[in-house]
Amino acid sequence: MGEELRTRNDDQRAQRGLDTTDRTLISLLQHDGRASFTALAKAVGLSEGAVRQRVQRLLREDMMQIVAITAPANVDLDRQAMVGITVSGDPREVADKLSPLPHVHSVVLCAGSFDLLAELTCRDDEHLLQVLGEDIRSIPEVTGTELFVYLKRAKQDYTWGHLTN
């Protein structure tokens, strides 16, 4: 049933697309996720109700998410790293095993030296070693890892490109 729902949602997104108003709303919310429907309505020239419906549809169809972004160091998560992972077999199966792990925040399938890249956020080095050893390397299909510890994050931006001109 989950696969059927995912396929139906993918089909709806492909058919629907994003119009100029959708793109403008997403762009405005990327800059201020707490913007009121009233302010958004003024910016795009629609009624508050129409904007509310559009935003709810964009959320429901997974076109966007509105979340609080923390500064990890300010919430006692002082160690961040990217881990390159090589696997035997289908990397999608390993990605499915990594994705629910609480300290794994991003998993991508990639080409190149690694099959997967996973971003980790941990309390400290000891916690990072625990996550790497107990959670990631313990997956039977994982054949190798290479850890890239972040010394300083120079940029973190969630605007994902320019949706409007």
Summarize the structure.
With 165 residues, this protein is an alpha+beta fold. Helices cover 41% and strands 18% of the residues.
List the helices and strands and how they pair.
Elements: H1 2-16, H2 20-31, H3 37-44, H4 48-60, E1 79-87, H5 91-98, E2 104-109, E3 116-122, H6 125-136, E4 142-149
Antiparallel strand pairs: 1-3, 1-4, 2-3
Helix pairs in contact: 3-4
Given as residue ranges, the uncertain stretches (5+ residues, pLDDT < 50) are none
Identify the strand order in the major beta sheet: 2-3-1-4
Order of SSEs: HHHHEHEEHE
What structural class should be given to the helix and strand makeup? alpha+beta
Range of helix content: 40-55%
How would a crystallographer describe the biggest sheet? 4 strands, antiparallel
Mean pLDDT: 88
Beta-strand portion reads 15-25%
**Overall form:** elongated
The oligomeric status of these chains comes to single chain
Count of discrete alpha- or pi-helical segments spanning 4 or more residues? 6
The span between the termini is 39 Å
Strand segment count: 4
Q: In angstroms, what is the radius of gyration? A: 19 Å
Keywords: DNA-binding, Transcription, Transcription regulation
Protein name: Lrp/AsnC family transcriptional regulator
Organism: Amycolatopsis samaneae
Domain HTH asnC-type: 18-78
Features:
165 residues; alpha+beta; 4-stranded antiparallel sheet; 6 helices; 4 strands
Outline the structure in words.
The N and C termini lie far apart (39 Å). The protein has helices at residues 2-16, 20-31, 37-44, 48-60, 91-98, 125-136; strands at 79-87, 104-109, 116-122, 142-149. It has six helices and four strands; from the N terminus they run H-H-H-H-E-H-E-E-H-E. The mean pLDDT is 88. The chain has 165 residues and is α+β, with helices and mostly antiparallel strands. The radius of gyration is 19 Å and the shape is elongated. The longest helix has 15 residues, at 2-16. A four-stranded antiparallel beta sheet has the order 2-3-1-4. It is 41% helix and 18% strand.
